[in-house]
Automatic annotation (TrEMBL):
This is Uncharacterized protein. It comes from Anaerotignum lactatifermentans DSM 14214.
Amino acid sequence: MKRKKLVLAVSAAVLLGGYTVGIFGQTEGDLTQKQIDNPNTLENKEEIARSVLESTGRSRQYDLRDLGDVTVYLGSDVTGNPQDAIVTVSFGPKNTVVAAYTADGNVYEYTGDLGDFYGVQNIRFVPVPELKKEIVIVREQVNQSLGSFEQSDILRGYVFDGKEYQDVLNTPQKIESSWNNLWNKGELQEPSLWRRVTEETESKWTGGEEPSLTITRYQSYLESDDKGEGEVPADDTFQEKDSRVVVERFFWSDEWNRFILDEAVEVATGQPVAIIENLASSPYLLADLPDFKDYRIVRKDGTTAYVDAEELKF
């Protein structure tokens, strides 16, 4: 039981200066069209990074000497709206800052901070005409070694509410997690056995009065015949022992201003809550590792929690 909590706690955790360019009309923190069009020249790269750090209040958090990739994603690539730009600035693994800008004449003005990410694989803009909104979808790459060797992609969605970007979606898109039974710290020492769960997904966006995202999850559980106790064995030593397909549908709720799976009432408070994660969909269940809770909920005050099914009334 202790191993189950150790491995699954990791999965749950994964699932959270004075610079002015001398150009007329551009104020501190703005970006020029030239910088947006050519973000990877040395000069533009550093100027963009400096602008992002200044605008998001991170000037003292990162050192430009550690600057890695700078990428600009334009809304026009998908939506035909050239005014929207999302900029990612990397300072190495686990340190990517994402900021949003919008065009005003010849400059792009800073509009919001999307946060810090492990790493960003890509960003896309999903227009939702019915909501008169545009959803910014960030696919975050997370690699960690706490409780298990886990590599995952997380789909995170954001909507601008006129003042700031709000988190409206957070769900796994890809998972590969490996661990050894030897890591169990129980009283009885188990023999070496490398185990793995994987998840690949397909996503489909649907418009209409109730925009939704349907995710089909293809999950597998594998075991390795390699009894070594050090490094994770080679992929070809793992054999599939079980598999399943899980389908989930997230739908937009005006009441909750986000994508949710369902609604319920929290028994302890009698107040409505929204279900934003169903842990029965976790691939770890294939490894006979039932999760420590059943659902993740969000309350009206914005707080979230993992709860048991008996704590809710549907």
